[in-house]
Structure formats: structure tokens, C-alpha cells
Input
Amino acid sequence: MPSFVAPTRDSRFIINEVLKIDNYGALPGFEGASTDIVDAVIEEAGKFASEVLAPLNASGDQEGCTRRQDGSVTTPAGFKEAHGQFRESGWGTLSAPEEFGGQGMPHVLGFAVEEFMSSANMAFAMYPGLTNGAVNALLVKGSPEQQATYLPKMVANEWLGTMNLTEPHCGTDLGLIRTKAEPQADGSFAITGTKIFISAGEHDLTENIIHLVLARTPDAPEGTKGISLFVVPKFLLDEDGNPGERNTLMCGAIEHKMGIHANATCVMNYDGATGWLVGEENKGLAAMFIMMNAARLGVGIQGLAQGEAAYQNGVAYALERRQGRALTGPTDLDEKADTLMVHPDVRRMLMDARAFTEGMRALALWAGLLVDLTHVAASEDERTSADDLLGLLTPVIKGYGTDLGYKTATDMQQIWGGHGYIVENGMEQFVRDARIAMIYEGANGVQAMDLVGRKLAMNGGRAIQALFAEVGKEVAAAKGDERLADLAGRVEKANGELQAATMWLMQNGLSNPNNAGAAAYDYMHITGIVALGLMWLRMGQTSASALDAGAEDKPFYEAKLVTARYFGERFTPEAGALRRKMEAGAEAVMALPEEAFARA
Amino acid sequence: MPSFVAPTRDSRFIINEVLKIDNYGALPGFEGASTDIVDAVIEEAGKFASEVLAPLNASGDQEGCTRRQDGSVTTPAGFKEAHGQFRESGWGTLSAPEEFGGQGMPHVLGFAVEEFMSSANMAFAMYPGLTNGAVNALLVKGSPEQQATYLPKMVANEWLGTMNLTEPHCGTDLGLIRTKAEPQADGSFAITGTKIFISAGEHDLTENIIHLVLARTPDAPEGTKGISLFVVPKFLLDEDGNPGERNTLMCGAIEHKMGIHANATCVMNYDGATGWLVGEENKGLAAMFIMMNAARLGVGIQGLAQGEAAYQNGVAYALERRQGRALTGPTDLDEKADTLMVHPDVRRMLMDARAFTEGMRALALWAGLLVDLTHVAASEDERTSADDLLGLLTPVIKGYGTDLGYKTATDMQQIWGGHGYIVENGMEQFVRDARIAMIYEGANGVQAMDLVGRKLAMNGGRAIQALFAEVGKEVAAAKGDERLADLAGRVEKANGELQAATMWLMQNGLSNPNNAGAAAYDYMHITGIVALGLMWLRMGQTSASALDAGAEDKPFYEAKLVTARYFGERFTPEAGALRRKMEAGAEAVMALPEEAFARA
Output
């Protein structure tokens, strides 16, 4: 059975040393996030993840969720107790506002904790994870009364939340939603319709479940401009705000899925269920996007998290399994074979995994800091520029992060050879669980279109220009250090590819939007490479400085420099190939008549 | 539930028009393989695959195999009957020698049929597939008596065969094998030991199972030079050659796996089981490699096959599912949304799948023809050069073919969005089944080392030089046709990358073998791209000529030219990036001390 140790040293390195959280101490929420508190929270969260959640990962996968005839859903053995401990330890409240019982800590810290929980047990972590999204939507769009009614319980994880978007005939294209919301005399709405793929739609973890549901009011305009958001609790609240009468909604079925078996993916039937409008009528999609954006970052972190968990178990096997001899001659003469660690191709996969997970962790935590800065940075300018970068990076973190997370899980399974294909060894679960992250919260192709079709052009391309400049700055700063000069040159080249690719899109995407559509995925990956390159430049400089300053933990910083070099050598060359692919344009992509696709 | 139609038109195009099987009519075995017979066999096999095997694919996955307390194994419902039909239809005997009851048809045809069966039901196709490997080993290394005893029944698929290599502590490193073979007074051996991961090790499809087992005789030298091959039937034969006394071997357990649930993967316990030496003592590994090489091609075909099956279902969904509008404006105004087919990113995945499956099909069938030519080509020179190319291409077909097969299955699942993650829709089974092909019969990293460490250097690099020359020839031939000039230029460039990469390996791999080890995987992929490029040049020329000649099936050939162009545009740029990656060398790959890999 696989094990998991939270990579706390790495998270602390990024938060304290690379992002230098201490520098933000004057900002609201950061007062309490001094280095020692960060360290304590990270270590405690890591312990919880590895000791409480990780042991339930394989058993949860095997047992899955059970739906009973009455529509109730039982989570796997141990989940209810683990959720109780999670709630009592306050992990759900960490970066929620103090006003509603949260601890008001920075999101950057919350993201680090989220990664650990998701590595240890992705299916479990989704229950509170989705609640965070619902909390965010209510924080921004809910009425004061709604906030007072739901948020304290949700923040405390006494009630969990869900997002209800997808219907059988529509996922990506939410304009097609059919679920109806009929206004009632008392100001509430009667919600009727079927939602599918509702993660955590029904379970036994909490006494109430707060559903956020997209639906149409009677005379709503067609398409996305006629969608409203409603809050629909499983149990209606009595006068004291406690769960009372059962609402007329029900889990009609749970799906059999490739992975995340321990998270109940529900068909939710709303049968005139009582709900209340959140925010303005017909503006539901905008409200939902508040949840979606947070959720997309969370899903990117899931990709990272599965990659990390798989990496650790790939390492464990490579250190233990003996097979063959080193190409340069036997290393362990008193054994009949050397460990897998001696084989360059095994090392290649492990180093790929390190370069990705450590780089992506830095990127995700930077995004967490950007979330904070959009809210609390001192000046409007700083808030805007954080928001620019966050908007640009969100689809990249989701799309590139989950693609590489899946690749990493697959590679680590590969290290285990045939034993990686056996269920009991747990490596294949990482692959199955990681797979969904490429699909939900907007399939990765949708992320690519969000990047190319929306984020790139916003404000005259201000965000991507800011990224170019940021990379340029770090390249210039790193070039003078011979330990980083090679990396700097390679990231500079990749940044040049991204600039050229951006220029190509400007010149060719407007004249024929299919050119943008056919280029989007490759463009997203180039951006991912450059963004990770930026992270490696920052981590490389931090590590070089630490070594120069005679830091105690020398092996840690030296390993960073090696991995930084590896990233430059093995990740950046891809950027040029991707640009050449996308610059071929849409013609051959779109040329075939539809009937030519069938086989005969 | 997914469906499958054998791509017979494409297979016939490759065999008849590209490989021009008629040109070989004078060679033994090819007399009976005229175009009309090829067409008839292909169509009939396609029908069998889609009508008999495909309907059992999902149910077989769901039910899996069951082992009973007595060690017997039951295959899923319908498998025994399907195997009966398979046997009666003679699909197992197609390219087996007539001497032992086979039909003596060329392997190129056998490969085409194998692909269909594997697309329709990979777990099923493995039962006769492994038997083919065992038949090959007995054909080459078995004594005349052994051949007479086992081959007629095995060729007829009345008995199935297995390969027993792996033990709990050794897979790749067969030198560590511990299973013992004690010589008995009657000339037989008593085999004792435990083998794991034995596909089709036990089942209810046939009355006997013929195991080929690697073991050590008492004074065998250590390592791979002390391994012998034994034939060990489940039931010993009576005087009439019929199954009699039960041999002392047993299936101790079957594995719970990520996929191929309907194929029993067995722990086999040999407890003094009676076996007979096949070929010379201590030369077992060479004998086993006869099976392995055939099996590796078969596994490459599995990658192709899962990619093809997934492709067809990706197309079906893209044609039917309506979501969003074309970027260039709505196409179906009387519907609320256009089909997925209008979206360039969906097309990109479908075209990737076409470029891979059609190119890999051509490569696999060419390899089938090379297998034939190694045996029956008219001159020693021709046989040698076929053998050179076959040896070089085998690890590429296995490694590149299965990597891309898995990628294709994953992409096609992606087209289905959330519905692709649901078990009942069948897309995730393609991914789970395709995954094993990257692992077994030598993990893909082992294939890369076989290519770089063995095949490349053999006979002074004669094989790779022949490939360069072949590509150069086709580039030159295609360049003058404006429909192919772009592709030709791009494949020429990729071939140049391969040549440069080969040169780099020669210069850097000998001085430090780790450079070769760290480069091997990327090198294998470059070779795969060039090999597919060669196939697309050939298919492109054939199609252009057919169009020039006024061929009836115009859309088919036009689609080939589009896909050829797409391959050039979207696959070849990767070659340069891969070369740059590998040329970074082994230093950063191997630099970290082992203890640096652990997290804390």
C-alpha cells in the first residue's frame, strides 16, 4: 500500500523563502502568518494528511460510496470520523474570513494545506474543497441574510456545499441549462430539474448539504444570459436556523467512475425544491464563475497533488527494488542486482516528476498569494496586477497542471513495472484519480480556450505582457550566476517562443478564429513551461543565495539547483516544438469532411 | 456502450496498395494471398471481431475472471463460446505453418487480423495471442517430437499456450530467476518455483494449457547464461497424446488489475511439475526471446488497437454530442448547439488519433511483411535486410506504439468530457486496458534500451543506416509532388534530427553509457516519429497516385492526403525538441544523491 509524507520542507521553502511571506506582514490576514506560524500550520496539516487521510485512500477507493433506496449515500468506512477530525482541527476554516468563524489566514497557506489533503486522499479532500467554492460564491454574491444563515456552518464544515451546473445534455455549454426556477409567493423559488456529475451531492458526513444550483426563471432569456444561481439546502432550516423539513431534492443515482470512488458523484433530482436566488436574476453564470475560478485552481492543485503522491511511491520503489546493473558497472557488489535508482531512464522519470511537482507547487502557491493580493494588496495597482496574472495563470494551472499530474502519475506507475498495474499496490489509483482533474471544472481544452480566447486579449494583453516582463526580469537577474546561467538562457528562449506564439495568435487568430482554436492547447502548454521556468528561476536564485549565505540545509538547496538545471534541459525544448505545431494553423485540422472520420 | 467496426478499408489499402502484397506472389505463403483473398480474409475477420468479440468487451471487463478454491479459473460469460467460434473459424491458424495444420498465410495478414481482434476485445485476444508466441518458440527450438506433440493442437487453438518468465523478485532482470528444474531418470525435469504475472496461466477455454517456463538446472551458471526453457503441460499426455494425468502445477491466485480484467493474470506455482527441456540447456533466454520479439510486435499492435477502438468512439461522440457553437459562427441553426466536430481542439485530438493509428497500422503491417521476408525472401541479402529493419523497428513499435496508443485512448476519453469518466460508457476501459501495453513484454524503458543499447550498434549500425536511406528515398520521391512536398520537407528534417541524435549517441554513449541510458527514451520517440513519417510518405504517394489514376474511392485518398499533411505539421516538430532534450546528457539526470529523492 502506498504511503504519503507531506512535502512540508518544500512548501515552507516556497512560502517563506521564495514568496517571502514575511514581506507581506503588514497586509490584512498576513499579520498572523509569520514564518513560525506558517511552519507550524504546514507541519500540522502535513501530519493530519499523512496520518488521518492517507490511510483511508486505498480502502476508500475499494469500498466506494453506497447509495440506498431512500436516496441516502454512505461514504466509505472511516470517512465520517476523518471528516469529524478534519472539522474539529479547523482545516476547513483556515483561510475563511474571521467574520464567519474562519481563521482568516492567507490563501497561500490554504493552498499548501489543500495540496497535502488532496495528495493524501483526493476523494476525501473534494468534500471540503467544493464547500470552499460554495462559500466563496456566497461571500461575494449572497445577501447578508444568506451569508449569516449559511456561512458560519459551512465555514466550520458542519454543513458541506456543492455546485450544481451540469445537466445530461450540457456540461461545457451551460447556456443549454433547462432546470427551472418558479417564483413562489414567499420570495423563494421552486427548483425542478435534473443535475448530473454533482460531486459530494449526497453523503453522510454532515447533517445538512447546501446546494448551489443554476436554473432558469420562467421568462429568462435563452442561453447563458438567462441563468440564475440559487441556494437550495437539503434540509430547510427551522426558525432557529437548524435543519428542519426535508427539501424535495434527492440523489437519484451515483455514478460508477474510473476513479475518485470515495467521492459520491450524484445525479440530483430537484422536484420543486425550495431555493433562494443568490445575487441578481440572470446573472448566475457570473456568480458561478467565482466558484469555478477558485475550483479550477483547486483542480490544478489536485493534478500536482496526485503527481506528488505518485512521485513519493515511485521513489520508494526505485530505492528498494533491485533489477539489473548500473550501465557504468555494478554499484552493490554484495547484492545480485542494483536498485532501480542506478538506471538513467528511471532517474529521468523521477527527475521529470521532481521538476514538475516542485515547479507546479511554486506556481500554485504563487497563485494563492495572488488570490490574497487581489483582495488585500495596499494599492489598486497591485490588486489589479495580481488579478491580471491570476486570471492568466488559472487556466494554465488547471490545464497544464492536471495534464502533467496525470503524466507524472503514469510515469511513476511505470517505474513499478507490472507491479504498478496491480490494484493492491496503489499506483494505478493515482492514475485513475488524476485522470478526472483533466476533465472536470472545464475540460482542459476549455481551459486552453479560456486562456487564448479570453485571458490573453483582456485589457489589451496586459496580463501576458506582465508575464513576459516578469520572466525577463528573473532571466536578467539569474544570468550572472553561473549556477543558473544555463537555465536562464533556456527559459529566455522559451519565453521568446511564447512571445512569438502570442504574436502569431494576434496575427492569425482574429482573421480565422479556428486558428486560435487549433493553437490553444499547444499555447497553454507553452505558457505552462514558461510559468514553471519562471518558478525555477526564482527557486534557483533563492537556493543559490541560501548556499552563498551558508545555509544549514545544504543538500536541499543543492538538489534545487540540480532540478532547476534539469528543468531547463528537459522541459524548455518542448516550447519551440509546440510553437511550430500551432503555427501550422487550422487548415489541416479542420479540412476533413465529417463523414471522412468514420471507419469502414 | 462503445462499438467497434474493423477499419478494413484502411488495412486493405496498406496491404494491397501500399505494401503491394501482389508483388510478392512468387514467395512461399504469398501464393494464396492475392488481393481478393486478402480482402475476403480481412472483411471476414473484421466481422468476427466486431460481431463476436466486441460485444463481450465491456461485460468481460466488468465480470473479470474468477479463481475457485481448487485453482481453476473461470473466464467471463461468453468467452468460452467465443473462443470456440474463434477456433472453429480458424483465426488462430491463419499464419501458422501448414505442416502443423496452419493456413500458412503471410504474417502481414495475420497482423491485420490481430489488430482487429485486439481492438474488439484485448483481454480476449491475448489468449490466442500468447499461444502464437509459444508456437513460435516451439517451431524454432522444439524437438521434432515436441513439435509433433504440441504444435497441431496449439495451432488449432485446441490447447492454448503461455510464457512463464517473471518471478516475484525479477521481471526485467531475468538473470535472477530461481525456479528450479531437476533432471529425472526418464529425461524429463521436475520444475519447482513460483511465476507471477502469467497471462492466461489458467482458464476454462481449452482442455489443456501448454506452459513454456524458464528455470535453472542444478549446476547452471549464475545469471542469464544459466536459464533453460521447458515445456510444461497442465495435463500430462497419455499414450495417445491426449490430456491425462494432472501435472503438479497450479494457479495460486489471480491478480486484481487496473485493466484487462477478462484475461486471467496468474500466480503459477510449480511443485515438481513434469517438464521437458526445449532446445539446449542454458540457452533458454535466447529461445524465450523468439517469443518475446513476436510478442513485442503483438503488444505494439495492442497499443494501436486500443487507440483505434477509442478513436472510433471519440468520433461517434463528437458527431452526436452538441455543445457550444463553431468559432466561425453557428453551423446548425435549427439546433441549439453545434456538434463537437466544429471545435478545433476536438478536431486536433481526432486528427492526432488518425495520424497515429493510420501511420502505426502501416508500420505494424510493414513489420508483418518484414517478418515474412526474413523467412521467405528470395535472397540472403533480402532476408538479412528485412531482419535488420525488423530488429530495429520492434522496440519502436512496442514502445512508441503503446505510448501513443495510451495517449490516444486518453484523448478520446477526453472528448467525452465527464461522460468519458463513467464506467458504463466504456471510454475509460480503453485507457485502463491500453496502459498495460506500455509495461509488459519489457517496459517501454527497456524497449528504449534495447533500441539504443543493442539494435543501433548491431552490424555497425547497418539497420539505422538502412532506415535513413529508406526515408531519404521516399522524401526524394515525394518532394516533386506539391501535395506531399510539405510533408516530405518535414520528414526530411525529422530524419535529420534522428541522424544527428544517432551521431550524438555514438559520440557520447560510449564514453559514458549513462548518456545513452538517459537519451534512450527520447531517441525511441524520435525514431517512432521518423518511422511514422516514412509510412505517411508512402501512404501519401500511394494516395496521390490513386487520385491521379482517377480512383473511385476519392474521399478515402483525399482524407489520406489531409492526414499526411497533418502528421507532418503536428508530429514532426517534436523530433527536434526530443533531440535537444537528449543532448543535454546524463549529468543532471544522475546528479542527485539517492537520499535527496525523499520528501520531508
Q: What stands out?
A: The CA atoms of residues 199 and 234 of chain B lie 15 Å apart. Residues 445-589 of chain B form one domain.
